[in-house]
């Protein structure tokens, strides 16, 4: 009994020693996505991360749609040259589209390319209506096939993968679908490996960025809806070994491509490439923000300074205007006063002239008697004083009134 326990312990230690590095490597490497799985065509699992977490499949759904199409072709129920009349329902499918118009007749083979290469929702709908008679019947066939393939945690409600709350799958189920699809219809990769597709002179690109960038990749299908974000089931062949990597729920197309590449590299080399971590440079961002703030403050200060200068200039101009107004008013007052004085002098001169004439006229007859001369002289002198007094009053009176009413005088 003791020997048996010792033997079992020895076997456990050997297996643990052989398998531990791979298990640790797989568990320590985290894929930046909601779920992921890596398998080969035999179904062996090399890595998994939340592989049974439910998630919206998005356009990966079209792999199941194409599975049924190729199955119908294989069974003789359809042919790539069949002309399919496009319905209004198919033509009105939301983007992405291959560009179908209602009423036109399109070869079945072109619709396969439109669905497989550029993920046309209009193409997927047209295929479903042609093979199932209508969308509802085709979706029933989809769910039956999913159960046959062992996709126990999946349910489909449309042939395109457009958003639907009840449409759900898992990374493990997508891997099962991909393996079955590639094993039964390997020639389908002739379509999925195409990076571009042209229909009616309009060229559209394949969203699978691994094509032409990751060695050995020749398919399979990408997808996106808000509920899941960016999904992919990718396949690659190197050295006679084909792998399938499923990554669901990546945050961006770039992350999806990067993480799927890492997963495939692990499958072929046994080691995960280092994850590319994008870190926001908060320091430089703060500096930029500070610089922008500084520039804004400087501009505001310059603007305020400019306004102050303008206001200062305006104030100076106003002060100058006021001074000029006061000066002009004072000058006008002085001019008016001078004019009044001149006028008064003129009147005085005129009065004196008249007095002189009178004096001369009265002095002629007064030459005969000395008494008459003295009397006239006294009389003329008295009149002159009276006149001068009257003129003086007239000159002083306006001056006094002006002094009371003119605000420029102090």
The count of DSSP E runs of length 2 or more, i.e. the number of strands, is: 9
Sheet with the most strands, sense and barrel status: 5 strands, antiparallel
What's the overall geometry? globular
Strand order of the largest sheet: 2-1-9-8-7
Order of helices and strands: HEEHEHEHHHHHEEEEEHHH
The percent range for helix content is 55-70%
Secondary structural class: alpha+beta
* CATH class value of the largest domain: Alpha Beta
CATH superfamily of the largest domain: DD-peptidase/beta-lactamase superfamily
Distance between the termini: 133 Å
Percentage of residues in strands:
5-15%
Q: How does this model look, in words?
A:
The C terminus is likely disordered. The chain folds into two domains: 259 residues, DD-peptidase/beta-lactamase superfamily (Beta-lactamase, 3-Layer(aba) Sandwich); 92 residues, no CATH class. β7 and β8 form a beta hairpin. α5 packs across α6. With 410 residues, the chain is an alpha+beta fold. The strands form three sheets. Strands 2-1-9-8-7 form a five-stranded antiparallel sheet, with helices on both faces. It is globular. The chain contains eleven helices and nine strands. The relative contact order is 0.10. The protein starts with a helix and ends in a 5-residue tail after the last helix. The longest helix is centred in the last third of the chain and has 85 residues.
